[in-house]
Amino acid sequence: MALLNHGHILTAAEMQAAEQQLIDSGTSVIELMHRAGTGAADYIWRAAPNCPTLVLCGPGNNGGDGYVIAQALLERSVDVYIAASSEPGTDAAENAKSLWQGKTYALDDAKPAKQFVDCLFGTGLTRPVSGTLLDHHQRLFEGAQRRVAVDLPSGIETDTGAKLNAVSRYDLTIALGAFKPAHYLAPARGLMGYLAGVNIGVEAASAARLLARPTIKPPETEDHKYTRGLVAVVAGRMPGAAKLTTLAAQRSGAGYVKMFAGTGFSSTNHSIVVESHENGVQLREQLSDDRIAIIVVGPGLGRDGHAERLLDLVLDIDKPVLLDADALMLLGSAGLSRLKGRSSPVIVTPHSGEFATMCETDDGSKIDLTKILAADSGAVVVHKGNDSVIANAEGAVSLTPSSSSWLSTAGTGDVLAGMIAARFANEKDAFLAAKQGQWLHGRAAKLAGPSFSPEILIDHIPKALQECI
Question: Where are the domains of the chain?
Answer without folding.
Answer: 5-206, 230-466
